[in-house]
Amino acid sequence: MEDIWQIGSFIIHKEWVAAGVSLLLAFGVLRYIGCFAKDDHRKKDVIGNMLFVFILVYQLSSFLFQTSLAFRYPISVLASPGTWKEWTAGWIAAGIYLAVASRSEKKLYFEAALYSVLIYILTEFFFLSYQIYSQTASAALVMHMTAAGLVFLAFLFLKNKLSYEYLLYILLFFYGMVMSAYSFIFPAKALFLYMPAWFFVCVASVGTAGFLSAWIRRGKAVDKK
């Protein structure tokens, strides 16, 4: 029972606490490097609401994917970490919210999407650091943490050279490709959930399609001039 704290009948998983602390550290890093200005309340609200929508759908969608258990053990289903299905549903819901919230603000859409991806990647980096510290360090954990770190370093290198749109698609492609390769060697996780290899292939595909679309649109705009 080393992985939990128990207060009476109430159980707290240490991994959940570690994930929460990692999330706060991720926000802190992005604020430190200037991604969040003090008066930029609109962007902060959208990203905060995206996180809320993601967590809400991620937790509640377990009732859809585990219907038979949900009627008999609703509390257990709600407290379970879920699977890639709930994880995917949460991200789709967060993406839909972002599209609606920023439907007339293209810059806000790509900026919020980019920073949300970075928040997740940094959260994953710090969470993996905790796992390496609290467990026996393994090649899988070190490689996964290194992959997350490299994606963030790529952002730091490119952030003053490209638009938010191009940065978003490049990071999605880079992260998806690195994790796709990783998942063929080790079981890949998104924080504490095991994810199928095709999930990361889809992430890389979205990045590729988005980048090509943006590049073609830019070419057409230049031709019109």
From TrEMBL:
Organism domain of life: Bacteria
Transmembrane portions of the chain: 16-34, 46-64, 84-100, 112-133, 139-159, 166-185, 191-216
Protein name as catalogued: Uncharacterized protein
Organism: Alteribacillus persepolensis
Keyword annotations: Membrane, Transmembrane, Transmembrane helix
